[in-house]
Amino acid sequence: VFSFRKLWAFTGPGFLMSIAYLDPGNIESDLQSGAVAGFKLLWVLLSATVLGLLLQRLAARLGVVTGMHLAEVCHRQYPKVPRIILWLMVELAIIGSDMQEVIGSAIAFNLLSAGRIPLWGGVLITIIDTFFFLFLDKYVGLRKLEAFFGFLITIMALTFGYEYVTVKPDQGQLLKGMFVPMCQGCGSSQLQQAVGIVGAVIMPHNIYLHSALVKSRQINRSDKREVREANKYFFIEACVALFISFLINVFVVSVFAEAFYGQTNQEVMLCCSITASPVTHRGQGMPSLENLGSLRLNCGGGVVLGCYFGPAALYIWAIGILAAGQSSTMTGTYSGQFVMEGFLNLSWSRFARVILTRSIAITPTLLVAVFQDVEHLTGMNDFLNVLQSLQLPFALIPILTFTSLRPLMNDFTNGIGWKIAGGFVILGICLINMYFVVVYVSTLGHVALYILAGALCLAYLSFVAYLTWLCLITLGVSFLDCGSTVRIKQLVFHEEQLTSES
What's the predicted TM-score (pTM) here? Predict the structure, then answer.
């Protein structure tokens, strides 16, 4: 029997998880998608969100059933060398996401101050805000912190919803783009943008995060009925949270699809030159008119909205970007702590962990903000979204492997449908990544860079193949078994016996 009271008790982890679907990297991907392809890639956004929901379901089930999060299971089941490599890959994804949060917050401060706060100043401010959230986490409590992030999601919904109502997108084209899986007249730029959407929406470290967040609720794991009930309510909560995040992403795509798709640089510059907008009275650090034709997180997302729809649109957009950057700050902090503690069996304070990861994220961002212009800073988001996409197999393969392992999951093991669908998802993502790498490498234009990229690709594909080999054996392809995976299964079974006996 469904109970709203029980749903409320389990509400929290899913909304914290959904923040990763609304970080500045996603907003950047959304506006680029609308500006480059109009409404034509909305079906990719919808598909990626549904796929993300199914993967988050597996992550939550792993945490609920086993009482361990994904990084802890990887530590127990993978040999030392692959485990360290896997940890480094996930850490790379976390640092990349942290850089996007820093960039988004810095740009928001720059826009809200009409350029009076330079980009490098905004980057430095983001150091302080992280410790503010750590203070809230320690002295206010998890439930109130979850409510605060729910408030930030509400701000994003209201601000980006305001832009949506102001622009009034074509609803017919919106529905067609969302439910008709085609992209007529699309070329390589639209295809690359579609890949970027997948990398921005499905965050690899978010799989690890969700499997850990569900452990915040007390569950009697010896009672199958209670475990099944927890799985149900966590899944319902995730559905609601990701539906809200999807609507917010649709707002952003639709605004830029309706207002800017097909616009030329000259048209944009002409509009800004004759409009009494903040760009005509910009402070130091605001982009120049010559750069406005490139619709990015700052230029297209802020100043051009101000040109077309007035100053209110600019500042409301900036508030939404600030909420996105601030809300995703703490999820990155949580992810980093869970991943480090799980993979290395090493307990660090959140304070020390934040000092390490945010220092790594801020250093290159600060250098670009000081010595380059805003275009280079916002352009980093494109590369970081690609980086997230390349890291996806290092979350998807382990989560499918371990949720398909009967000695670990018992009656909650993946069925044959989940195993087949998961296998095709991983294969599709790997093929997309290979395509994107080929496209990127072809633009390098130097023999030495070709050789370096080839070596890195070979190492990357070799490690993905190793993880896939273990996963296929777990899925039932027994002829690939050379003995190591059998020992892994026995180890899990032995640990469960010890737990039940104690």
Answer: 0.84
